[in-house]
From TrEMBL, chain A:
Listed name of the protein: Translation initiation factor eIF2B subunit epsilon
Keywords (A to Z) from UniProt: Cytoplasm, Initiation factor, Protein biosynthesis
GO cellular component, one term: eukaryotic translation initiation factor 2B complex
Quaternary structure, from the entry: Component of the translation initiation factor 2B (eIF2B) complex which is a heterodecamer of two sets of five different subunits: alpha, beta, gamma, delta and epsilon. Subunits alpha, beta and delta comprise a regulatory subcomplex and subunits epsilon and gamma comprise a catalytic subcomplex. Within the complex, the hexameric regulatory complex resides at the center, with the two heterodimeric catalytic subcomplexes bound on opposite sides.
Automatic annotation (TrEMBL), chain B:
This protein's name: Translation initiation factor eIF2B subunit beta
Gene Ontology CC annotations of this record: cytosol; eukaryotic translation initiation factor 2B complex
Family according to the record: Belongs to the eIF-2B alpha/beta/delta subunits family.
Subcellular location: Cytoplasm, Cytosol
Annotated keywords: Cytoplasm, Initiation factor, Protein biosynthesis
Molecular functions (GO terms): guanyl-nucleotide exchange factor activity; translation initiation factor activity
UniProt cross-references to SUPFAM superfamilies, sorted A to Z: NagB/RpiA/CoA transferase-like
One Pfam family linked to the record: IF-2B
Subunit structure: Component of the translation initiation factor 2B (eIF2B) complex which is a heterodecamer of two sets of five different subunits: alpha, beta, gamma, delta and epsilon. Subunits alpha, beta and delta comprise a regulatory subcomplex and subunits epsilon and gamma comprise a catalytic subcomplex. Within the complex, the hexameric regulatory complex resides at the center, with the two heterodimeric catalytic subcomplexes bound on opposite sides.
Amino acid sequence: MAPKAEIHEEQVLQAVILAQCEQDYGDPVTQDVPKVLAPLANTPLLEYSLEWLERCGVEEAIVYCRADTHLETIREHCRVAFMTRRGDTTPATTHPGGLRVNVVASEDCHSLGDAMRDLYAKSLLKGDFILLQGDTVTTLDLPALVTEHRESRAADRNAIMTCRKTTTATLLVSASTNKLLLHRRRGGRSTSSRLSVPTELLQGAGDILAYPAAYDPSVTICSEVVPSLFSDNFDYSTLDSLVRGVIEQEELLGYTIKCRVLEGGYAGRAASINSLIGVSGEVVGRQAYPLVPEVSQTSHRVRYHHDAFTHTYWDPSAKFPKGSMVTGVVVGAGTEVSPTAHLQNTTLGDHCTLGDGVVVRESVVMTGVCVKGASKLEQCWVGDNVVLGEGVVVAPGCVIGAGVTLGDRVVLAPGTRLSARPPLGDLGGDVIEPDPAVCGVGGVAYVVDQEEEEEEEEEDEEEEDGGGGGGGGGEMDESEESEEEIQMSDDEYNMNEFQHEVQESLSTALREGAAAENVVLEINASRHAYNVSMEDVLTSVVQGILKAGQERSTASKGAEGLWPAVKSSITAFQGVLRNYVKKNRDQILLLNAVESLVRSCPPFLPLAKGVLFELNQTHEILDDEVIVAWYRGGAAGATSPLPALRTALAKFVEWLEEEEEESEEEED
Amino acid sequence: MAQLSEREFIDKLRFEKYDTEQAKAEESLYLMECIVGSVHWKTGSDLLNLLRNVGTSVQAKMPWETTPCNMVQRVIKIVIDEYNTLRGENQGVEYPSLSQSMLVDPACGDLPKCTEVIPELQDRVLEAIAEQKAEIEQSQELIAAQGVSKIHNDEVIVMCAMCPLVLAFLTKAATQRKFHVIVAERAPKYDGHPVAKALCTAGIETTLIQDSAVFPIMSRVNKVIVGTETVVTNGGIETFVGAASLASPPKFYSVPLYVCTPTYKFSLMGCEEISHQTTTSIIPEGTKFWPSVNTALAQLDYVPPENVTSLITNK
């Protein structure tokens, strides 16, 4: 008998590196070089990740980027770097144990969510994979994490296992199973220092570890379920939203997230200019050993001399003072630094020239830069081929794009961003002259304006994307006592958007005479998109219906009176209202909604009575008792009925009460 | 075993997949066997060039890995010698120093021209490499066997750092002699702790002391035994950090310092080329030192030849 052949699935370890999904650095930097190829200690950022993945035995790395001008550069880089590493010219060699790099691009990838959906659609991910951001430098023990992940998957169905270390998210983790119970990202916008924890969380878990500040290096081990979860929920854009979604829907889906806080290893994310400088300092200080600056990550040759005690690395062809004034510095090939210069914690690229008395602190300087005497640079990023004149003072946080020339004695305000290319004028044909006030005589530089959002983004260094508004905006507690509701501006923004949408749907429906189910469907879709609670939905719907009636009457230029229009609107939407108004509580909400609408739009005041009459008598959506109770007892919320409203409704309520008595009498 | 290519070897070295120096030496010899055994070369010069390429690439990428470089240099010498023997020259020439008789550094100077095609060259070279291999494999036992003759009863010996060779040396000697070993614990890695444990399980009386207590203890010690990474040309050694401070007190108190080293650790490196190999991996994450404080954790140290009494090797 022939022995049965066992089919083993080759477990190829894959990694996904997200490059280019969000533009973080701002234009002057990413104009010329893609973010992942920006050099950190004179090595492109992507190299650190690829090198470390290769050491961890990952067999295939998928570099995911947006299909724009930088795609070719990234592709070329991966191919060239890969070949130098391999030392042969045939890229198709399946070298056992090597790392295959695959660059995948997509047209409209704006977030991690889009990337995941695309990868899922292309079926490139075959099993568990490691998810990294392209700008991470890490020496975490990935193989150990992967084994642990695989073991826990065998025991129980898991979605993701993450590893976090220290600063920006608040985590609650169950100690025995490492299950993630609560995750809240603390952005710069959060003003409260309290965290409300639903008690159900505390019930099931045994020991809970609370990490008030966990730093996310953005390294995650995901199972193959993750991309499918992303594609099911089209509004998940960042990993945070996925985490929250999975935790909330745990009973439904049965997925859990495990979380480990790691002790050893280094991980740093160079997301913004400041963090780039910070991570650069740490790598220069050899905290990311074995990824050290003196060994080139592309060709693995030792390219710099290294002085351990001042943490200085220099190329043999560089001329610079090796004294105590120079510490924590990486100096590229062919660079000349004058003996009187002071350098501290900076990276200089190739072929730079620094004149006498130049002071450079905690900056990143790229290739071909010429800085003339007595200039001061602090915590800034200077692009390729920049020429700075004498006595230029560059304040912290400045970004000077490639090719900029600054005249003598120019002083830049903190946070200025300059670019050598003029901003695109609307008319195209204009040639904007460089402003001497900005860049000095003979200089060429244009200030790049940033939008508000980007600036806020720069402040919170570890925020993943500008859409942090969607991900980080607080959760709407579904509980009834919402006294601790933290009012964040994102909530209001969401509400406004939602109300607009509802309004539009209702107006359109009224005009076209759409069926109730369709309207309900539309409203529900909007609700899910903006993550709005049921009470708000009801309120918005009611107000929307009334306003739609108003719109209709104004649209027909007052030919129809306001009241008839509103009445017909209510009639048209009675199905919708019935769908949302089921319990007494809903009815009270409806009444509150009418009241607040009256408060905000006075024209509705005389109609309030008519509205209530309609809803009560004709459509029987509102019960008599409820109306009476509401009127007598005041609203369940904080405000009491308007005096005007009270008087307007007084008669109606009296009549209702009489009716009640009559019907009671009749029953007797 | 499958054919090992130069690239794979370098990758393995880079990813630190070898546990001991002996494994590295064996693998590098194996690599060279593959090169010699392959059909890519015709004359001696070709072979020498191939070997030289291996040597330079390892040197360029990992200058601290001296063992593979040593082996390459050995093999080059073997090839040259065999070639010359087969051509009937250079019989019985005396070499001025040990290193010259064993190694040829391809980096300095041209290699002698070996342009004749001699068919037996390949076989002879392979034989010689096999001999080298056997020598490496036996090095540990041969050194350990000398323990009995070097150590006497009731002696106090100081050793340091996790060195399997020295441990083997001492444990073999312990089967026949009774002596006392003092181990320095070597912060911050605390290598000394597992060493002390290993010695205890072998039945040797052990004392664990802190690094700073080495000097006062030295007056009562009979000998100091250490292992090494590399032996440099002037007779000094490049070894674990802390060895330099371990080696000065014996000089002061006239206590002999023995270095147990197999022959594959002899190299042509000059003493000025030694770097300390610093990392900062021990510093806990998040300690706010930077930027005013530099932290440096050295890995290697140099002991000058004046402090070394003798080398115990396997020849």
